[in-house]
Design a protein that fits this description.
1460 residues; 112 strands; five-stranded mixed sheet; mainly beta; 3% helix; five-stranded antiparallel sheet
């Protein structure tokens, strides 16, 4: 229930009623008490009373009393003279209620002969006399039979009874109403009294005004429908009433004028249409009416109704004052507004009309029904007539209405869902000839079920897009010419999207679903996916813009008109776009307080949907649209001419190389893939390519087509093609540091990168393996990892500024090339060439503008070919000895992969849209040119994308397609001579040696084919045809994700395969086995925890998994997976192995659904599941003895739970409304008095083991006391929330004690600049001084603060932070504020923090992808790089010898060296 301030339209409070359905509410005279009645979940009547006195001052609503009753209650009102007294009436009863001593009690009124009446309303006698007591009043109660009872409230007795009868002369000038007790009475619905007269509302449609003795009617107003309620104004001059037809009217007693204030539909609104010229709105409703409204005055202009028919769809003619309406009977009628008459009826349909639309020029009209029929009408002449009717072409599903049809902006295309719900059909709008069918069920190959189209809408013709919403809560953006998938927006709503609309300027997208409206930036240019607006209490049926784009209209339970504030008078500049990419602004304004959804970065743990927190003020518009997550990976468009630009000479750049580590991985698999070590690193030479012009020579037209430049290229040419083969870098909000930080020398004290956990499944072809030399390399973030398959030790090649997209290795395995995106300040991508023996970066190449898609070395290692992605579309040829650019060319369409011929060094091939392009290199002196021959696939293959290729034995070339086919080509004659169906999904990887071929697809399968007969078919020249008997599927394996990289030995018996799940698999076809070689989290890593003996560590991630690793080998030991949930935090039980043994090793993990799960490491099973939170758990911690679990959630609630019983012992709400970022704890030494007698001193951990001795009196109970704090307890713990508040507690869980020791609150800067995302509040107990709290967060300065608990010293600027307005209600104010004992300045706000238990060393991570190691004693700072995104996690091991850091899904393990 919501309480509102009527004057300001602000929501004051939201609270739960405890009732299943509320039927009646009543405020007290002063507004301090609210009572209500309704039904509970069992259908029993409840009466509830609340105290609302503190709501206007920011307080909460308090429940005073509630009671269940068996009587029927129609009306419940609070007595205006006493807030504790209420009266109710209903069928067969009138009852008096009173709240006393927290209880709600009632007594019935003895009605005598009137006890069987149905009472509908009541009201108290108005006015007050000083001669009478306040409760000495008359109560008037009305009934369905026309009776009005006068009840003595004080004596609880009926004083008088009247029955109001209708006049015998209905049309007489004098309409006196008889009050005799005979005849049929007036059915009264409502009654209201003033000091001088009474007003009644009756079922016969009359509002009547009576004197208090009911002798006659002195004024009345007649309505067409029953009058349902009545109310007299405070001045007794006006009477307000409502009717069953949805109108609100006002009767002016002095002037005797009656005016209708508001009209509305009586039932759900099904559809609407807007007429732009006259600013009129047409709506149809389940109340069987069609209503026309004026958008400027909000007044109803016309109302049409059809008996026993329900209108389903409506459409205004774009030029003439007529509209068309479709009904559930299949009838389509056109109505003239100018003449207010029916013009025509069309009876072509027999099912309910699901779609009705005019063409933009108004010459045609289209209708569709639930029986699948589609009709075209000619409306160019005065009387429209039918042109064509097609049966069974539209999906026979009523859920596609009311906008099942969509016409393109140029009026040429008509789109609809059909003939099945899985297919979208495009037709010629003038003839209804079918042009294109798109099967949406196969576009999402990851989905286990077939997807179905629900709604569709054309974008403006300049874009050429068709938007389709699906049953899997996605929006598919399709190209209207080819039908290819351009983009996927997901998830859109929790449930199916019920309507969508695009703004006339193509900048904004509206979607409706889940009873909310979402506004999207159609360009998807920013980092916030959408804005959510609430207001509807039922599903939204339709949503759309007005033609001037200044308003948004949505219909469902009512008609909502929203002011749209996203209209800009000018296009934003690039600088405005950049500055506003971090702004989350609201662009819709409406009466009320709709909530706005948080950004997705804050909410991977939050359920999508509307926020129930009321908005305090109406948001103001910004100059541009709100930031939205860029679903494509394009950072900039290609506009320059590659052949004409001159490159600047590059600068020298340092190559960051890490020393070889000693982590061990999958021993059994690595023993078969033995690799050699590499040694040393040097500075690389930076090469920025000077483009070499090809020699002048005749070229054929196909080559000219491939060489077309991209000057003035339209954005449509840079749209991601319909294949997964292209690299899509993960979207990042972090920006690399622009400050120069000196790197520590190799022999300096600090950190050495020892191991990296994870494989970048986001890359393409980013794993290389040479079976002859054993070289094995792959990418993880911006690192190239070279791993020894014998020992598992790793080398880490650093230097790339961004995520690595692909790798290539020379055939002699002496050189590795790696490619990544642009660094800070660079305008082009970076390709690094590494010397394997020396581990040095030899060259840094710059040429491609967006991403490098693929790279390959020629068979003799003389050339390196690099291929740009779909936005770059450039292929560059490099001299592999000097790494000078020999030539480059730009394609008019995206190219997916390139490969050199193993037979001819100067011959190569690439694949793209529907063709293979063969290239032949020619050198004339210093000039190099490429001859090109483009060969399309045979027509029998169909319109496909060729997504992969590899050369086979002899003159064979194999190519894979997006539809799962493999084509075999003869490279001598450049022709395709056979194809076969190889997979159900897109084939992205092909590898061939001898008579074997391996294919990998996005169906998560890798298959081994025997292709011995293909060579024979090539010689025979059988022509292009589908052949399945000539190839044999020998084996197949299903992996954990889409196959993105694969390398096999020459015999094709074993190899390594990479998937999008971040796993590298060792595949052995001979043994039919697959072994995980490298494995990591697929999504963001949330937490790392360590076992007490430091033998294992556990990690958790948003992929829902908890993984346990061996610290000695860094091998995955066990994995616990929870489906459809994110694991956001975890903690390892502090019980040591010596006490609890293997059975004592437990891990507790917190999930996004508010649950805690306790896992046994030894038994590898979940032992306990608890649900103490209703929202996502964000922080966890064990007590010192492991007997208590502390958990905090995103709403600031801290729960204390028992891992033995699963019960929640206590809830702490001091941090309410702000997410808990950190829970940290420490322990206090416990001693026995007197020390001389016992001579023992043990920590709190073994106390539980000695409980039996304590109970028997053998040992006196321990006394743990924090003397410096003056409180008892052995557990000292803290909780830090996102609002920069830290609470510190002392607990003795054995005695059920938990006291708040201190409360810290840190201010935020007052300036408008707020970093995005806002840095977390980080706090921890200092391990080398456990009475000191270390804090860092978003504050006045970028720094780390040390706060002494015994001295209670805080910084002077923080004095006001302990005021009543900023501290917790239960906090105690420190008595001696002073100064911080130490501050450590930071270059940026910290995003992660960890303190070493072994030395005074602090590790700090930043959003600028930097890791800083601070030695507090030596006063030194060292910065380290290695992550390609925010360093979101830092954790020292218990010994302090290692440091774990995480950035998204990559985990780096550092060795802490020397003094640190």
């Amino acid at each position: 229930m919501r309480l509102w301030d009527f004057a300001t339209a602000e929501c004051l409070s939201i609270f739960k009623t405890g009732m299943h359905a509320v039927s009646c509410l009543s405020f007290s005279y002063n507004g301090n008490i609210l009572c209500g009645t309704g039904k509970d979940q069992h259908g029993k009547t409840m009466v509830v009373v609340w105290n609302t006195a503190r709501v206007t001052r920011g307080g909460e609503v308090e429940l005073l009393a509630k009671a269940h009753t068996d009587v029927d209650i129609q009306t419940l009102k609070i007595a205006f003279f006493d807030d504790t007294r209420m009266v109710s009436c209903g069928r067969d009863n009138v009852r008096l209620w009173r709240v006393r001593s927290g209880a709600l009690r009632s007594c019935p009124v003895n009605l005598g002969e009137y006890r069987s009446l149905e009472f509908t309303d009541l009201d108290f006698e108005a006015g007050h006399s000083t001669e009478r007591e306040p409760e000495d009043r008359t109560l008037f109660v009305c009934s369905r039979s026309g009776h009005v009872l006068e009840i003595d409230y004080k004596n609880v007795a009926v004083r008088n009874a009247r029955r109001l009868l209708p006049s015998d002369l209905r049309h007489s000038h004098r309409r006196e109403k008889q009050t005799f007790s005979s005849g049929s009475g007036i059915a009264l619905n409502s009654i209201c009294l003033s000091s001088s007269f009474c007003a009644t509302a009756s079922e016969d449609g009359y509002l009547r005004l009576w004197p208090l003795d009911f002798s006659e009617v002195f004024l009345e107003a007649e309505h067409d429908n029953p009058v349902t309620s009545v109310s007299i104004g405070p001045d007794n001059l006006k009477v307000l009433c409502t009717t069953a037809s949805g109108t609100v009217g006002c009767l002016d007693i002095q002037s005797r004028d009656y005016s209708t204030i508001m009209r509305s539909h009586r039932d759900s609104v099904l559809a609407f249409s807007v007429e732009g010229l006259q600013q009129e709105l047409a709506t149809v409703s389940q109340d069987d009416t069609i209503r026309i409204w004026n958008l400027e005055t909000m007044q109803q202009l016309y109302e049409f109704s059809a008996s026993e028919e329900t209108p389903c769809a409506v459409a205004f003619h774009p030029l003439r004052p007529i509209f068309a309406c479709g009904f559930d009977t299949g009838m389509v009628r056109t109505v003239s507004l100018a003449a207010s008459k029916l013009l025509e009826e069309h009876k072509q349909h027999r099912g309910s009309i699901t779609g009705l639309v005019y063409s933009p020029d108004g010459n045609s009209m289209y209708s569709a029904c639930s029986h699948g029929t589609l009709a075209l009408y000619n409306c160019a002449i005065q009387k429209s007539h039918i042109v064509r009717v097609l049966a069974n072409v539209v999906s026979q599903d009523a859920e596609h209405g009311p906008d099942a049809l969509s016409v393109s902006a140029n009026g040429r295309l008509l789109a609809f869902v059909g003939p099945s719900k899985h297919v979208v059909t495009l037709m010629d709008a003038h003839s209804l000839d079918e042009l294109l069918r798109i099967d949406v069920s196969i576009l999402d190959l990851e989905s286990p079920s077939l997807d179905a189209a629900v709604r569709l809408r054309f974008a403006p013709s300049s874009l050429g897009h068709l938007l389709v919403t699906t049953s899997s809560q996605k929006i598919l953006v399709l190209d209207v010419k080819s039908g290819r998938l351009i983009r996927v927006v997901s998830p859109v709503h929790k449930q199916s999207c019920s309507s969508l609309a695009l703004s006339p300027d193509s900048r904004y997208l509206l979607t409706a679903g889940d009873r909310v409206i979402k506004v999207w930036d159609y360009g998807m240019r920013f980092d916030v996916s959408s804005q959510v607006f609430i207001g509807h209490s039922e599903p939204v049926r339709q949503v759309g813009f007005t033609p001037d784009q200044r308003q948004v209209i949505s219909v469902g339970d009512a008609i909502f008109l929203w002011d749209f504030l996203g209209v800009s008078t000018k296009e934003p500049s690039k600088e405005e776009l950049r500055r506003s990419s971090r702004i989350h602004s609201s662009i819709i304004e409406t009466v009320g307080s709709p909530g706005v959804e948080a950004s997705p970065e804050e909410v991977q743990a939050v359920s999508p949907g509307a926020n129930d927190t009321p908005r305090k003020r109406v948001p103001q518009p910004t100059v541009i649209s709100p930031p939205c997550l860029d679903l494509s990976s394009i950072q900039r468009m290609v506009h320059e001419n590659t052949f004409s630009e001159s490159e600047e000479e590059g600068k020298e750049e340092a190559c960051l190389n890490g020393d070889m580590g000693g982590a061990v991985g999958g021993a059994e698999a690595r023993a078969r893939l033995a690799a050699e070590e590499a040694t040393r690193s040097e500075e690389p030479e930076v090469v920025k390519a000077a483009v070499v012009q090809p020699a002048s020579r005749p070229r054929d037209p196909a080559e000219d087509e491939c060489r077309k430049e991209a000057k003035g290229t339209e954005p449509g040419n840079s749209i991601r093609p319909d294949c997964y083969r292209h690299f899509a870098p993960r979207f990042k909000t972090s920006v690399p540091s622009s400050k120069p930080f000196p790197l520590p020398p190799d022999d300096a004290e600090g950190l050495t990168l020892k191991a990296a956990i994870g494989y970048n499944g986001n890359g393409r072809g980013n794993m290389v393996w040479n079976p002859d030399t054993g070289l094995f390399a792959y990418s993880c973030g911006c690192l190239v990892i070279v791993e020894d398959l014998h020992s598992g030790s790793q080398q880490h090649w650093l230097g790339h500024p961004e995520e690595i997209s692909t790798l290539a290795v020379s055939h002699d395995a002496q050189v590795v090339a790696s490619a990544s995106g642009c660094g800070l300040g660079d305008s082009r991508c970076q390709i690094r060439v590494w010397d394997v023996p020396s581990r040095a970066c030899r060259k840094v190449l710059f040429h491609h503008e967006t991403q490098v898609q693929a790279m390959a070395y020629s068979r003799d290692d003389r050339f390196l070919i690099t291929l740009g992605d779909y936005a770059d579309r450039v292929m560059a040829l490099w001299n592999a000895h000097t790494y000078e650019l020999m030539t480059s060319t730009r394609f008019s369409e995206p190219v997916h992969e390139v490969a050199f011929s193993p037979l001819l060094a100067g011959r190569l091939a690439c694949v793209g849209k529907g063709a293979v392009t063969f290239w032949l290199m020619e050198q004339q002196g210093m000039d190099t040119s490429l001859k090109v021959h483009r060969v399309p696939v045979p027509e029998a293959v169909g319109p496909v994308e060729l997504t992969s290729l590899c050369y086979g034995a002899g003159c064979l070339l194999y190519s894979g397609t997006s539809s799962g086919q493999i084509c075999a080509w003869d490279t001598e004659s450049d022709r395709c001579f056979m194809t076969w169906e190889a997979d159900e999904g897109e084939i992205g990887v092909l590898q061939s040696h001898g008579n074997r071929l391996v294919s990998g697809s996005n169906a998560k399968r890798i298959r081994l084919w025997s292709v011995a007969a293909v060579q024979e078919l090539r010689v025979r020249g059988s022509g292009a045809r589908r052949v399945s008997s000539s190839v044999l599927l020998e084996q197949e394996m299903t992996l954990d994700g889409t196959v993105v990289s694969a390398t096999f030995d020459d015999c094709m018996d074993m190899g390594i395969v990479g998937t999008t799940a971040g796993t590298l698999w060792y595949i052995n076809w001979a043994e039919n086995t697959s072994i995980r070689l490298i494995s990591g989290h697929k999504n963001k890593v949330s937490e790392v925890a360590f076992s007490p003996d430091e033998s294992h560590c556990a990690t958790c991630g948003e992929d829902g998994s908890v993984r346990v690793w061996s610290l000695a080998s860094m091998e995955l030991v066990v994995q616990f997976q929870v489906l459809n949930q994110s694991c956001l935090c975890l903690s390892w039980s502090p019980v040591p192995v010596s006490l609890g043994g293997a059975e004592g090793q437990h891990i507790v993990a917190g999930y996004s659904d508010g649950t805690l799960r306790v896992f046994s490491v030894s038994r590898t099973e979940m032992e306990l599941k608890m649900h103490p939170h209703s929202v996502a758990v964000t922080a966890l911690g064990y007590s010192a003895d492991g007997e208590i679990i502390l958990s905090g959630d995103k709403e600031g609630l801290v729960a204390v739970s028992s891992p033995r019983t699963g019960m929640t012992i206590r809830l702490l709400a001091d941090h309410r409304s702000s997410p808990i970022n950190v829970i940290d704890g420490t322990r206090k030494q416990v001693t026995w008095p007197p020390p001389r007698q016992w001579g023992v001193s043990v920590s709190f951990t073994p106390v539980r083991a000695l409980l039996a001795d304590f109970a028997c009196g053998v040992i006196p109970p321990p006394r743990a006391r924090h003397a410096e704090f003056g409180v008892e307890g052995s557990d000292l713990w803290l909780a830090a929330s996102a609002d920069r508040r830290v609470s510190i507690w002392v607990s003795d869980w054995m005695k059920d004690k938990c006291e708040l020791l201190d409360w810290l609150s840190f201010p935020a800067p007052a300036g408008p600049e707020v970093p995005h995302p806002v840095p977390p509040s980080l706090a921890a107990f200092c391990p080398w001084d456990k009475s000191t709290v270390v804090y860092s967060g978003f504050g006045l300065q970028k720094e780390i603060l040390f706060y002494s608990l015994p001295q209670k010293q805080v910084p002077l600027p923080f004095l006001d932070s302990f005021s009543e307005s900023s501290r917790s209600p239960s906090a105690t104010v420190p008595s001696k504020p002073g100064f911080v004992i130490e501050k450590i300045p930071l270059p940026y706000f910290a995003t992660s923090l960890s303190l070493s238990p072994a030395a005074c060393v602090i590790a700090v991570g930043f959003n600028e992808r930097l890791l800083r190691l601070i030695d507090r004693r030596a006063k030194t700072e060292r910065d380290h790089r290695g992550h390609d995104d925010t360093v979101s996690l830092c954790r020292f091991t218990p010994s302090g010898h290692r440091l774990f850091t995480a950035s998204y899904n990559e985990i780096l393990v550092w060795e802490v060296r020397n003094g640190c």
